[in-house]
Amino acid sequence: MGFDEPSKTRLDLGLGISSTSTADAAHVNAHRFWKISEPSLTLSLCGGTENQIHAAKTVDFDDLNRVFEDRETDDLFRQDSTGASSLSNLSVKREREHRSSEDEVGVQRAYRGEDERKKLRLNKIQSSRLEESFKRHTTLNPKQKQELARELKLRPRQVEVWFQNRRARTKLKQTELDCELLRKCCDRLTDENRRLHMELKELKALKSAQPLYMQLPAATLTMCPSCERIHGHGRGGGVAETSAKGSFTISFKPALV
DNA sequence: ACCGGCTTCCGCGTTACCTCA
DNA sequence: GATGAGGTAACGCGGAAGCCG
C-alpha cells in the first residue's frame, strides 16, 4: 500500500508536523515523508473505493496508440534513455517563457480547439496501473518512470505529473482525516473538561456542607474505643480528631523527614 | 574543504478542462 | 441546453539535494 505505508502523519495536539527525509538507495531525493511520533494517530488511507482497482475488461491498444501519437511531443524527447533531462534548467525556463508568450498570442486558444493538446483523461487501465504502482511506492525512480510510461504509452512527464498529483491528493485526504480526528478529539476533551468542572463544583459544594472527618478518606480515620474519638491522619502530619458526639480538634505534629 | 553552477526532483498553488448532477 | 461544483491533468515556480569543476 503506497500511501499508508510511508505517510504516517504526525498528529500531536499541537498539530506539529515535521517533514523528514529518508534516503533511498535507488532514489535519494524521492522520499520525503510525514513522520509521526508518539503520541500518534495512525490513519489508514488505503482501502475504500478510492483505491479499488477499476475492472479492466478490454484493451483497445489502437486507441492507446493514437492517443500516444497525439501526445508524443516535447517531453518525450526531453528524456534520454536513462530518464535524465537533456535540456538544462535554463532551457526549460526559456521554454516555459516561450510557451507563455505563445499563449499570449493565441496559440493556447488554438490548441484548446484541437484534439492535440486537449486535456487527457487517463483510461481505466492506465489509472488502475498507476494506482497499483502507487500502492507499491509513492515515488518513482527514473527507471520505474520510464517503464511505466512505456507500458502505459504515456510520456514520462505524464507519469511524473500523475504521481505528483496523486501524492498531493493523498496528503490532502490525510489532512482532512487528521482534521476530522482532531475535531473529534477536541470535542471529547471539551466534554471531559465540562464534566470535570461539574464534578469539581459538586465536590466543592459537598465539602462546604460536610463535617471535616467526612472530608477525609475513610482509610485514614480511626475510632478510639476508649474516648470515642475519630482520628484522621492527614498528609502533612496533621491529625484531625473528632468526637463521635460532634466536637472536634485538629492538631499538627512535625513530619519526620 | 569550500564554493558556485547545473541538473533533477519535489511540493505547492494554480489553471484549464472534463464530467456530472 | 446552461450552469455550477467537483475531480484531475498539466503547468509554473521556488526550494532542496546531489554532482562536478
TrEMBL record:
Gene3D superfamilies: Homeodomain-like. The keyword Lipid metabolism does not apply. Belongs to the HD-ZIP homeobox family. Class II subfamily. Coiled coil: none annotated. Residues 115-174 bind DNA. Its main location: nucleus. This is Homeobox domain-containing protein. Keywords: DNA-binding, Homeobox, Nucleus, Transcription, Transcription regulation. Residues 88-107 are annotated as: Disordered. GO terms for molecular function: DNA-binding transcription factor activity, RNA polymerase II-specific; sequence-specific DNA binding. Residues 92-102 have a biased composition (Basic and acidic residues). InterPro entries: HD (IPR001356), HD-ZIP_Homeobox_LZ_Class_II (IPR050762), Homeobox_CS (IPR017970), Homeodomain-like_sf (IPR009057), Leu_zip_homeo (IPR003106). Pfam families: HALZ, Homeodomain. One of its GO terms (cellular component) is nucleus. It comes from the Eukaryota. Residues 113-173 form the Homeobox domain. It is found in: Nucleus. SMART domains: HALZ (SM00340), HOX (SM00389).
